[in-house]
Amino acid sequence: MKNIRHALISCASVIFIFMTLALTTTGCCSNNGTNTETKAKYIFLMIGDGMGASNVAAAESYLSYKAGKLGGEQLTFTKFPVLGMATTYSANCNITCSSASGTAISCGVKTNNGYLGIDPEGNRLESFAYKLHKEGYNIGIMSTVPVNHATPAAFYGHNISRNAYYSISQEIPQSGFEFFAGEGFLDYYGQDGKQEPITGYLAENGTTVCFSAEEFETAKASAKQIVLCQPSTKEQDAEAYTVGDDDKEDFTLGEMLEKCLDYIGEDEPFFVMCEGGKIDWDAHDNQTMPMIAEIIDFNGAIDVAYEFYKAHPDETLIVVTADHETGGIALGGPGGTSKNGDNIYWDVFEKAGVTGADGKVDSEKKKELNREANIGWTTTGHAGSPVPVYAIGKGAEKFAGRMDNTDISKFIMNTK
Q: 158: buried, middle or exposed (CB in 10 Å: 19+, 13-18, 0-12)?
């Protein structure tokens, strides 16, 4: 009987050892607590700057109007199977700025408003883009706003001031990331306008800067790092914000993403951060139709990512979110339905046109158009509401439910 008992104990010990080994080598956690489940080979993080749930609702209401319906039309990303919501407060404010939220998303750490890639104590942080790059991922960073603006810069830059644009741009070669694209650079000649052109500095440090599709086609075979800028910003400071400032020769966000994928290819894993930055700028100015146009442009880039996903569904993750909400837009103006009726009158904007000949709308005229259309705006600043998170593909299930914006990088990296 004793021998049988010993034999059973020995068998149990062997089984326990094999189970332990299996969990250690193939299970969910390693000894250091890091999730060892393989992350997606191809990762798209799409950030609609300022694009809260109500901004999305406004765009879909307009699309429904164009289709002759009251509702039901959807943007591509709102069809994704996983939906969550992320809180956005910063380390020192209930209402975040883009650099603090960009840092929270990219580095997984809360920081103060105005800080970029550093924590509240001034310590340098490492974005998960750098971590992926060390693992062999090619990296693409792009936006409809300048390359050195808050959100794209949060993935490669470090500065106590988000406005130190020239210094931030100088970190592009240091990053080693393969591809950047955007609307040129703020502080092209430095903050005092007397520095060497930033493109000169970049060229001296091994970065190829292109201002046209032709320049890109010529450079892509041999360049180690490319920055693709809008043709309209060549040799000049990018505009901070102008309504209706899109040049016909400029790239859409989807075209930027297509060129990124053309350049980095699919042989190696990649991470792409793609920002619709002007959604925020138009919402700051309470420009309803320009904001909707930017959301539709952003959705066009998501279409490019989604087509890639359909070709690689088991290896691709797409996450769509916002860094914060801007404008506090509502489908319903002051006074509610009892005063202005139950519908949104999109035809008001189409009859009036969006901008004047100079690309601007008089402040009072803008308010009148919004009021007549039954569109309400509560602020020209940011708002503190949680923002939606949409996901599809490998690991998408992690993004369901409530999370903080600092969780996004952890979910992508499988460290939480």
A: buried
